[in-house]
Amino acid sequence: MKLTANLLTVAALLTASATAMAHSGHAEGGFTSGLLHPMLGLDHLLAMAAIGFWSVRQSKHMKNATPAFVIGGMILGATLAWGGLSLPGVETGITFSVLVAGILIVTLAKLPTAVGGTLVGAFMLFHGFAHGAEMPAGATLAAYLAGFSIATLAITLVGRGLGSLMLKADSRFSRGIGGLLALVGAFMAAA
User: Fold this and answer.
1) Does this model's pTM top 0.85?
2) 110-152 pLDDT tens trace
3) What is 45-63 written as a DSSP string?
4) Residue 140 to residues 97, 112, 116, 123, 162: CA-CA distances in angstroms?
5) 109 φ/ψ angles, rounded to the nearest 5 degrees
């Protein structure tokens, strides 16, 4: 019962902080802005960490390929934005990436590499588009790209580290984390 109360408290704090951690206040300059963007948006932070967390329980090939799927999707999305192309439903795609990643963790879903990689790449396409569209004026493209790529990989690997720790624990803990993520994603979708 105490675990449930603690999980609900964390969920409430995370959802309450969603609006406080919006994407404003990026420092000027390409690399720093790129580095901070994924960390200042709760939706980005949770999705990337959740994908890393989920990847731990996947096949060895999927687990090893996840960082490439993450970065590949991010770069493709940013390139679309920088090319002036439109991507409908970006915010919806970002929100649903948190929700679906939470559901994948709750269910301990194992997906074939082709399916999992496509899903991860699609999630990150939306995140990358948002990053590309929000690049500050005057920032150099290469520096901004390097910044958000490093931050994205770091967040994903932190999620993977947490997922690895949870492998040693009762699967209810992983499911609880997934449930919190799904709740946050549902709250973001409803907001």
Assistant:
1) no
2) 999 999 999 999 999 999 999 999 999 889 999 999 999 999 9
3) HHHHHHHHHHHTTS-HHHH
4) 28, 38, 33, 25, 33
5) -65, 135
